[in-house]
Task: structure prediction
Amino acid sequence: MRKLASLFVLPLFCLASALAQPLPQEDGIRMREFYRLSAAVENDVWPNWSQIPAPLLLVTPQGEFLTHYSAPPKSFTRIGDDIYVRPRQFPVNLQATFPAFGPSAVIVIGEPENTSSKTSTPWLVTVTHEHFHQLQDSQPHYFDDVEHLGLSRGDQTGMWMLNYPFPYQDVSQAFSHVRDLLLAATSESDAQKFEHAAQEYIAARKQFFAKLSPDDRKYLSFQLWYEGIARYTELKVAEAAANYHPTAEYAALPDYQSFAEYAGKVKRNSLDELRDADIGKLKRLVVYPWGAGEGLLLDRLNEGWRKEYFAHPFSLDFFFEQ
Result:
């Protein structure tokens, strides 16, 4: 009987230990720095971005820590000022934004060392990428309008956005041509040559999309508008943060990298990624550097395009047809 009682108590003890665990110190520093950085730069990148809530769920190997969420689910236990914890449920390498607990989109992300970011400053900028998805998702009727694209084909999980059967291999050669023209335009410094290079890209882009089926065209357009411009937003946040002065506790992190140093690399790295991109191998992931390149091109063609971005959802065609 005593042995049975001890077996019953042990799981309860483990659960209580998981719920009572504190937020790791370095994670707390990074989370606080994200909200401080966002407040400093977000409205310089997108109009009224600061009006959008940014609930965040940090996934660690032991637990999940929720902050800036107005009504935490009952599965969470309060352990500090606006910090709640529950046993881990999501993968530790997750980097996503979705309505995890209801209508409000939540950033769900692992610690830097468990994600592609690896270190603190790239991680912070990646979190702003996910925060931009919160801005996109907050637009009136966003989820209904996405469903009306007619691309889910009965899937109610949202996984169609990742698994849609786009013919990547079939467009490989045409993509390489469009990619090279985009890189040529974004790297051209001479004003007259830039205008010519930009028009070449726009014409080739139009031909590329014209050869796609209606659904394939809608899917690729949506991905460039959604994920591609989220990557572009990372570049703009890094650029805006070049003169940002972090807190002393953040600068003391062992993997600290200044935002000025990171800003000097992130744009180049994204364009290098596009230069090496093979759409047949990368598949959907190609939209990240491709969309970022298109955003940079639009900055030079029409610096006010971001003010109209949300008025023309799910496609950048409007801006290239100006």
